[in-house]
TrEMBL record:
This is Polysaccharide biosynthesis protein. It comes from the Bacteria. Keywords: Membrane, Transmembrane, Transmembrane helix. The chain crosses the membrane at residues 20-39, 60-83, 89-110, 122-141, 147-168, 189-210, 222-243, 264-287, 293-318, 330-353, 359-380.
Length: 393
């Protein structure tokens, strides 16, 4: 919530061009939070079935999650020493902040697993204080986006370190896990995390295209629009994480059939909604080419497209969540569908953003969500042909 509030304040403090550069860097690097956070999902899914191995799983989770952040902090330190182009430092700082945010989410997830959920609230309460303090300093001192991010990153690193120290010592320091457990955990973390990672990469692709076509001044409005959706999506993700251990235990085996049926129907709704949007977007594009109407990234257009995208994204997200907790074999299908969706987002963005700007970016996200749902539905139908009959009853 504090990030959404500070973004609104920053639009008043910085010029539209400066805020656009900041928004572009943050959105383009947002996927890194899900690289470091992927291990948490695997830990929560595994904990319901192998409770005696929880200390080993916790150590693996921390090692997997810490590696990207540590590497990026080293690169950031090098950037600050050699003083490269300011834009490069801004993007590395944004990447480091995202990676550290993902690591803090992972540590907080382990606190919930250890039976101390209050530490989760304390950690993010402290991050909120850091955010408000740095935003206030930016208002008073006129800090640049790079300095703003460096101060945010420093505060979050301290909070993460304290949160890490509050975990059970055996979860942090201990013998190396058995090689077989490491391989299995690594595979599950990669596949479970890839779906969320590709969803965010689809958004990052839109901002990269905006940068490549020199439309970063439109990154600000798009970033603010997506911040509203991200707040709701983040809330849903958090609730699903709380429910994940129970869902993983409940949806395994024969009981997974009901979860697959619900997911298949949800994906069908998303495909239908995306197809309808594709028809409308195509018709509007024809009218634009014919000179009947002019396409523009108006506030109304962004709001309508944002609402459509949010609805499709939530349906696909919940359908994917149900499938991921039925059996591990489906993870290859959810990962493949998410990857295709991200590639589709980049392709649609390359086609639409140069002409329409931010509205074209949201159109790309709407269409790529439908593509992801369609691919996942086909793969699920091939793996479980009975769903084609059951879902129609």
């Amino acid at each position: 919530m504090s990030n959404q509030g500070s973004a609104v304040v920053l639009t008043a403090l910085w010029s539209m061009q400066t805020f656009g550069q900041f928004a572009n860097a943050m959105a383009a690097c947002a996927w890194l939070a899900f690289v470091t956070n992927a291990a948490e999902k695997a830990a929560l899914t595994s904990s319901a079935r192998v409770r005696r191995l929880i200390p080993d799983i916790a150590r693996l989770t921390l090692r997997f999650a810490a590696l990207p952040g540590v590497g990026l902090l080293a690169v950031l330190g090098l950037c600050l020493v050699i003083n490269p182009q300011p834009m490069a430092t801004l993007y590395v700082a944004a990447a480091s902040w995202s990676a550290m945010a993902g690591f803090l989410m992972t540590v907080s997830g382990l606190h919930r697993l250890s039976g101390r959920p209050e530490l989760d609230a304390v950690a993010f309460g402290a991050v909120t204080i850091v955010n408000v303090t740095v935003t206030a300093a930016t208002w008073r001192l006129g800090l640049s986006p790079t300095i703003y991010l460096l101060l945010q990153l420093a505060g979050m690193t301290v909070v993460t370190g304290l949160s890490l120290a509050a975990l059970p010592r055996i979860w942090i320091v201990g013998p190396l896990s058995r090689r077989r457990l490491t391989v299995i955990f690594g595979r599950n973390a990669s596949l479970l995390g890839l779906s969320d990672l590709m969803d965010v990469a689809a958004i990052s692709a839109v901002f990269l295209v905006l940068m490549l076509v020199n439309k970063t001044e439109q990154s600000g409005p798009l970033f603010l629009a997506l911040m509203v959706a991200s707040l709701l999506v983040a809330t849903m993700l958090y609730l699903l994480k709380l429910y994940q251990p129970a869902a993983a235990a409940r949806l395994r085996g024969a009981r997974g059939h009901d979860g697959r049926v619900r997911a298949y129907r949800l994906l069908g709704i998303a495909v239908g909604g995306g197809a309808a949007c594709a028809v409308l977007i195509s018709a509007y594009g024809v009218l634009h080419v014919s000179g009947v109407v002019a396409l523009a990234s108006s506030t109304l257009a962004l709001c309508v497209l944002l609402a459509i995208y949010f609805g499709l994204a939530m349906a696909v997200m919940y359908g994917t969540f149900l499938l991921e907790n039925t059996d591990s074999r489906i993870l290859s299908s959810t990962s493949a569908a998410a990857t295709v969706g991200a590639l589709a987002s980049a392709g649609f963005a390359a086609a639409l953003v140069p002409a329409v700007g931010a509205a074209g970016g949201l159109c790309a996200l709407v269409l790529s969500s439908a593509v992801k749902a369609a691919v996942l539905r086909v793969l699920l139908g091939r793996r479980h042909p009975e769903l084609r009959i059951t879902s129609t009853l």
